[in-house]
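User: Let's play a game. I give you a shape written as tokens, and you guess the letters that built it. Ready? Here's round one.
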């Protein structure tokens, strides 16, 4: 079943939810997710929240798990990206006004047998081999001007594996798509 695309107001609500979640966490206050009745936002979907500060990555965490509504996932992933991304120190109160948020609302994972089915800029890649796993969102390939093979190799590296690991029959290669929107673009990217 094809998911309906998020509307501009729905994207804005998700961005506001993400920002409010971070703001409440910084203040040491509990974040209660607003009541939502919109069917698009109630869909069970995975999502990633990416934080940029002055155009540079400041945190990014997400989940493929579709075990709760999208708007709840976005709130939780915003807090995780701001305070639990081990590549960065937790976000400080003085940084709050300097950050921009980007949300990637995901489609379900699909296993790939033929790598020629991977479209850079359209698909993200999730690679799993034993205990190693790594993901790169669709916009990463576009930003870095990678072709399909570069994208696959870079996802292997992100997983802590050698470039070319995707050729190993023990490696699972999965793809997904995402609706991508940010505060900076005012929800106009997708």
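Assistant: Ready! My guess for every position:
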């Amino acid at each position: 079943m094809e998911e309906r695309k998020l509307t501009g107001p729905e994207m804005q609500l998700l961005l506001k939810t993400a920002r409010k979640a971070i703001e409440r966490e910084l203040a040491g206050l509990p974040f209660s997710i607003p009541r939502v009745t919109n069917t698009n936002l109630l869909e069970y979907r995975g999502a990633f929240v990416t934080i940029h500060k002055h155009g540079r990555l400041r945190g990014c965490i997400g989940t493929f798990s579709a075990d709760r509504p999208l708007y709840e996932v976005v709130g939780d992933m915003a807090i995780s990206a701001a305070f639990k991304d081990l590549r960065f120190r937790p976000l400080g109160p003085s940084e709050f006004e300097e950050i921009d948020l980007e949300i990637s609302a995901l489609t379900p994972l699909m296993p790939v047998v033929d790598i020629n089915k991977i479209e850079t800029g359209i698909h993200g890649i999730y690679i799993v081999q034993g205990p190693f796993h790594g993901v790169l969102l669709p916009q990463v390939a576009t930003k870095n001007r990678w072709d399909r093979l570069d994208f696959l190799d870079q996802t292997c590296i992100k997983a802590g594996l050698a470039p070319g690991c995707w050729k190993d029959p023990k490696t699972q290669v999965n793809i997904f798509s995402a609706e991508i929107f940010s505060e900076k673009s005012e929800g106009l990217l997708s």
